[in-house]
Design brief:
Elements (H helix, E strand, L loop, with lengths): L2 H27 L3 H14 L8 H4 L2 H38 L7 H21 L9 H44 L7 H32 L4 H4 L4 H13 L2 H16 L7 H6 L4 H18 L12 H6 L6 H22 L4 H13 L7
Helix pairs in contact: 1-4, 1-7, 2-4, 4-5, 4-6, 5-6, 5-7, 6-7, 7-12, 9-10, 9-12, 9-14, 12-14
């Protein structure tokens, strides 16, 4: 095999590896979307700037976002690695990094939950299977308790502070761009990361914790709008439905419904991976949307999960719909225009189809 043949193979393997990694991250978050929605609705309704302000019910917001949601992520991550036993130690370990943290430790939960479960899995495979039936339950319970407790302590003393420092450093970078009126540049990082199936890590690990802090101070945060904005994906899918290859034209309309109304952004990622130049449309659409959000001072009260237009509007504060809708519409329009240009308004696709029909001996269609 030549080097020329090796290059596409390595690129395909790298893309597959990144997709698997992103899939594992999504697997920790997606089963818990209901909890995110519950927190988002409670936040939108009962905080002082919400639709139905209530001081007593607003007390639910902090414990849910700083303890419940990270523990659920850690539990799910542990379960993916080592079943129910892994889920238990993952949850215990996550408490160690969540308690006392100044920011929601979603990213930390994605790390420590699977790690604790993996260590328990190593123990079970090397020692647990050799224990006699009479001591099996005793050894299993104590091994889970010791590993879970040790990881909770390690998380509280070492892992948690490191993750919190990383999150704050990233937050300082976003804040710098915000203060310098350069926040749209965030899309240069966010949109390619989304397409590599790292959307949940970016949103729930970095942007959401920043948004929680700003939302507590001002009642809304633009960080909640950066990744879930359904506009860029909508514009690209509409362009593919009109000007894409035959397969894309057939499937893109259905993907629009799933992405824009259902909030499942992952549906359009493979389209971009199949035509990588379209990432420019996603970046341009995302950046233009963030620019409009910034001009209008738009923000949400909580992270919309999933990133459906309905979920976005559900956590939009009173009086904030114009800015939010304007940003979504502009980002969709810009991504559509750029994607259409990159697709050459379907000229290349139609030419390839005609050539294929001629090669197959069919009738050439205009």
């Amino acid at each position: 095999m030549t080097k020329t043949e090796d290059a596409p193979s390595r690129a395909h393997q790298l893309r597959a590896s990144v997709q698997r990694f992103g899939g594992h991250l999504a697997g920790m978050v997606m089963p818990n979307i209901g909890a995110f929605i519950a927190w988002g609705l409670i936040t939108a309704l009962f905080i002082p700037s919400g639709w139905l302000p209530n001081a007593q019910l607003a007390e639910l917001v902090d414990p849910m976002v700083k303890l419940l949601l990270p523990v659920l992520i850690g539990y799910t991550g542990g379960r993916l690695v080592h079943g129910q036993r892994g889920a238990v130690v993952g949850a215990v370990a996550t408490v160690g990094i969540a308690v006392g943290a100044d920011v929601p430790m979603f990213l930390g939960a994605m790390l420590i939950g699977p790690l604790a479960a993996f260590l328990l899995k190593l123990w079970d495979n090397s020692v647990g299977e050799k224990v006699g039936p009479g001591f099996k339950m005793l050894v299993d319970n104590f091994s889970a308790g010791i590993i879970g407790g040790a990881m909770a302590v390690l998380g509280s003393l070492a892992i948690g502070p490191v993750v919190e420092a990383i999150t704050k450093a990233l937050g300082n970078g976003v804040q710098f761009l915000l203060d310098a009126h350069l926040l749209p540049l965030v899309s240069v990082i966010v949109e390619p990361a989304k397409v590599l199936f790292l959307n949940n890590a970016i949103n729930h690990g970095v942007l959401s914790p920043l948004g929680v802090t700003h939302s507590a101070e001002t009642g809304k945060a633009i960080e909640f709008l950066i990744e879930p904005n359904p506009g860029p994906g909508l514009g690209i899918l509409v362009a593919l439905a009109l000007f894409g290859a035959r397969a894309a034209r057939a499937t893109a309309p259905g993907a629009i419904v799933i992405q824009f109304l259902g909030g499942i952004h992952e549906i359009y990622f493979p389209y971009i991976l199949a035509a990588p130049r379209l990432i420019l449309a996603a970046i341009a659409g995302g950046a233009s949307g963030v620019l409009v959000f910034s001009i209008f001072g738009a923000g949400l009260t909580a992270t919309p999960s999933p990133g459906s237009i309905f979920a976005v509007l559900a956590v939009t504060p009173k009086g904030g719909w114009l800015g939010v809708l304007a940003g979504v519409v502009i980002s969709a329009a810009v991504s559509f225009i750029i994607a259409s240009l990159l697709l050459k308004f379907g000229r290349d696709a139609r030419k390839a189809e005609r050539e294929q029909e001629v090669a197959n001996g069919g009738t050439v269609k205009s």
